[in-house]
Hints:
Number of strands: 2
Largest sheet: 2 strands, antiparallel
Number of domains: 1
Strand order of the largest sheet: 1-2
Helix content: over 70%
Structural class: mainly alpha
Amino acid sequence: MRIGYYGALREPKSELDAVDEISMGASSIALQGLQQADTQLENAASNIASVSAVSATGGDSVDLSQEMVAMVAAQQQFDANLATLKTEDQIEQRLVDLTG
Length: 100
């Protein structure tokens, strides 16, 4: 027996089961990253869209350059997490082809 990912005692798994467990972990992390990037992108877009409303009312100004940097960073984060998911999918497909 060995200590598993969550600390529970488990019997040793096959190599494919271990790869599948790692793959599911990578997918989960990448999906969380996609959700975070989406939220950041929405927030930055909302702040940029509010510029005309803020300037019309004389309220606090929005730093457009800072919001644009946030949007670019969110887009890059989104792209990186999407690339992780695509790579993980390709690896799984190759494993299926090898074991098929």
